[in-house]
Structures
1.
Amino acid sequence: MTIQQLESLLNINLPSKEQTILLDDTQITVKRDDSIHSIISGNKWRKVKFQLLDALENNTKHIISFGGGFSNHLHALGYYCRQLNIKLTAIVRGDYSQNLSPMLQDLIAWKSDIRYVNKLTYQARTDSYLNTLQTEFPQALIIPEGGSSHFALQGVGELISELSQEYDYIIAPVASGGTLAGLIQEVSKQSLKTKVLGIGVLKGQGYLEDLVNDLLPKEHASSNWQIMHDFHFGGYAKKNAELIQYCDKFYQQHKIEIEPIYSGKLFYAIELLIQNTYFPKSSRILALHTGGLQGTR
């Protein structure tokens, strides 16, 4: 099976469109990865597509991955696995068993196995707990939280070749680092002058940069990127009335749905940067809408 056949099987609509809007009287382009599928969320397909293809080619019957109770990554993965007849074990941070989120209700409907773990166990998902899972399920494919692995970089990087022009800035939200790393690597591969900007959606100065650097191969390390840390509104999934009102106003003006966890913080940041004349005049700016709308239910 090719990646194109897999995308056809799952009804993935790529390439996603580029849509021009005005923010504070400045023209920017939105890469609408939120629109590639009615259920699958934006960049969640790009980050796991090659891992899924590898799983199918190796006849993998079981996938394990990690996330919170509203995780876009687990939601998308649960859907893929149901469609491809692969068992999913979702390791969920916190016990939602008596108060299921809409995301977890979907996973149950898709026959996923859910394991609730405490915060301490979840924090060990990259070392001791990971080893425990690998011992318990030696035949399973374990995908990192958010799908951010070295596999993710190739899938995200394909986005660059879909673009209609070379941009001066590509801007994306950052949480687990895979999307930004994929963009940086492909810009480096193609020797583009594009600057890649990340908008940190959680408190993590230094931490987020380390996540990105750990994913980047040395030959594609670059200095032409930056993560901005002034727009997280207090931390991951933190929001206030101003941000919620901004998301509502953005939809009214542009008819593009955004939410306060990822895309709302992204566009809020871009608009404020424009107002503060961060971008040189006539800059070509691309904002990557990574989806995530289901997480607000």
2.
Amino acid sequence: MAHSLTKYASLLDELAAAGYRFHPIRDYFAAPAKQPFVYLRHDVDRLPERAVTMAEAEAKGSIRATYYFRCDKHMRFPEAAMRRIADLGHETGFHYESLSRCKGDSDAALALFERELAACRSLVPVDTVAPHGAPLSAASNMDFSTGIGPERFALLGDATGIDFTDILYLTDTGGTFGSPYNLRDRVAGRELPGPIHPVRLAAHVIGQQETRLVLSCHPERWPSGMLALTEARARDSATNLAKRLLQHLRASDFRTRAR
């Protein structure tokens, strides 16, 4: 379920007190960090105003993160939020869903990716990109990431291109860290063995002597105020129910075709 912004701030405070340094994703590709480190990634799927609030809180602590922004089908981005977050000193990137929008057509997806990336760059600098999971779509944008070729688009890299064999990936996809409802935001490497509440996460990674981390959070899931928190939890519950139903339908379809 969703959690309050104060819990996110407390998580960062605990990690900072233990000596962890925070970096945006582009630093992984441009200037590898000294251990212990945390690369901070934020996917802004909706409610960009919550991303601004999170970015302002991080900036007050001299913390820089990466914020990946989606556009709608008309290539419109949340421009005001993007510019504000860039002005705060954070990295801004493109959160693409080209393959799912093109229903699995990789050629059309590549052309769409190029146009949307250019639209994003007309507003803010973009050095790295990251796919949107789109778990309810038949086509997975995760399958598209390896075919982009970052150098073709003057990119440092794709966030999914990080080598997770020795870096622990922590994501709140599905409602909490290590959620069983995370269907697509997975890496070929190290992840949590099961759900861990954010108030226990810092103690877990410190206790396990994890010194190399990527922490991925969706700002919409970390609001301020009880009303917003209740709304965010209700959305998570509805989304997870839809995922469970989709898993059941896909499994049933697979069994039918296998007969």
3.
Amino acid sequence: MAPQTSETEQVVDLNSWLPITASRKAKWWYSAFHNVTAMVGAGVLGLPFALSQLGWIPGIVAILGSWLITFYTLWQLVELHEAVPGKRFDRYPELGEHAFGPKLGYWIVMPQQTCVQVASTIVYSVTGGKSLKNYSMVAFIASTIRGSHHHPATYGVRSHTTAGQIFDVLNGIGTIAFAYAGHSVVLEIQATIPSTQKNTSKKPMWKGCVVAYIIVALCYLAVSISGFWAFGNVFAMPVFDMLESCLVQKLHFTPGRALRFAGRSTYVAITGFIALCIPFFGGLLGFFGGLVFASTSYFTPCIIWLVLKKPNRWSFHWIASWISIIIGVLIAVLAPIGGIRQIIISAKTYKFFS
């Protein structure tokens, strides 16, 4: 008779196979690299367009303001990763479960994180299919060279009507929010860093985050400013982790390469097909940036912080958290409106599967 395995041993064995917890050998520079790649992606290409919708000063203020708020909420997530001594919250939903309860917490965080990951995959596919180009430094250099030879005379906002300007502002803010999407994978990145009760993973993780955010600021400002000046007027890993965990735990598939290949290939095929159907790059950034990215990056970490840490009323963290929550909720409610309008406008000229 085969020896019985406890539920704890099964979880440990599964964690040694799942992509996020398979290895804990990362250093602080791994954190910096992964956080940069999580942030500086397709969203950066939409920043010049967002700046043209908002205008010079409001656009730069929105980019820097978002950088500041998400830098703070990033710190909160890094701190909360080991909020309980001897326990690690290696996945965003696990932290949600600890804050709001096993069932409620999971269903509050998991759908939001999944939407961020799926939306990122779709938008990245649209980006690759539409442009097959540049990234931040290439966009910066190309825009600067073009601007030197073909400098436009005016830098007014894109729309000429009051209603159009309002909708453009909402879409522009959503586009900027999309650019700060790394929070959905922060705990998963930190899960790869080793830790003990004496030497926690917070220090190397935060060191990497600081370096990453400095690089993010340079890339975002360089691309958005140079792009507007010149032209005028891995995200999927938590999804794979969740998908493979569900296939093994709920549907009782055997962990292995065949399961991993089939599951990931199916996911990529589905999101790629959706990307072919809806080539509305600018509208997608604004819509998804407001609808789900604002939540995972702007206000969900703050809500969890208030629930778990219970800072004193009118203390720095209480005020900072509530400011982030209010701004994040406003973005989540209003920005998708601008994104939908941009999609409707684009639909007049775009054809599906184009």
4.
Amino acid sequence: MAIVGTGYVADLYMRSRDLHPDIEVVGAFDIREGRLAAFCRHWGLRPFASLAEVLDALPGEGIVLNLTNPDAHYAVTRASLEAGRHVYSEKPLAMDLAQAQDLVNLARSRGRLLGGAPCSYLSEAAQTLAAATRAGVCGPVRLVYAELDDGYIPQAPHQKWLSESGAPWPYENEMRTGCTLEHAGYVLSWLVAMFGSIHSITAFSAATIDKGLEGGCTVPDMSIGILKFRAGQVVRLTCSIVAPHDHRLLMTGDKGTLEVRDTWDNSAKVRFRRRFVMRRRLMEAPLPRRIRLAEGPARRRARRRGSASMDFLLGAEEMFRFLHEGDTNRCDDRLALHVTEAALHLQNAGEASETYMMQTACDPLPALGWAQKLR
């Protein structure tokens, strides 16, 4: 694997390298020479002088890890696919659906793999929740509340947020890209992996706060979406950089509720509250039962970094596993494209959105080998 783009998020991927000793990072490239030098010096990597040099250095089954700014995702991924390389891209695949679909079509025509972040749906927490829904722990899932609020970010000391190799958190780029496009995928990927295709979305998005950027910024800093899945589930998804930090996911079914308190924690606990009647009252159990898998992943757990405890290389690992073992690729272009389409609509819905009918589709994903059964 080779890294293209050595900004803040690249260090998060490199921190996960110790969890995946079979993955070799052959080097990195960035158009900013100083940033590239600092990153490669910190991690002991070879600096490449150009994207072309990266593509020449990668073996035939190597993967380009596209960690550039969102505006550059399309061009870098397209060049890599045209050179016959597999690509794993940070979110989103592209900044509009037509470009994302073009990349998928190109990857398929060249027989190359194209995967996209986020990959936390491959985590222990997400796989446990999926196993619980398949087993009917809470009964058929009817309604899901998902929160992705990150606090009042413009007032946070983000100027002090530095990666391990010294890259500043890209505040302006994050604000101008939009928090929904940056973050909604963390929940969308979980839900699509579990339930399959989204049928329709009714959404609202708006700019509610001054982000302190020169020239202003009217990119929405909050969104609320109602998603109807083809399998019948209804989801309310909220995303903002305004409301207090909250990354909870709550599923309501006929028998009770399943809850994950922090979807940015790969090993977060999955809890079930049974619903019952006591005298004349309908209640959920005050003491939840923890749901566990019969076995868990063999690797060590990811360490916490800032507000997240995530293994950023799970997606690349899944692509490598498929390349070497075949079977099912759980990090394929259908999921990345469907999640990109949904996030783009949620971000860009505006204040007078009509119901949007999804154009792409994705089947539910099979469980990982170690996540087949509950205790």
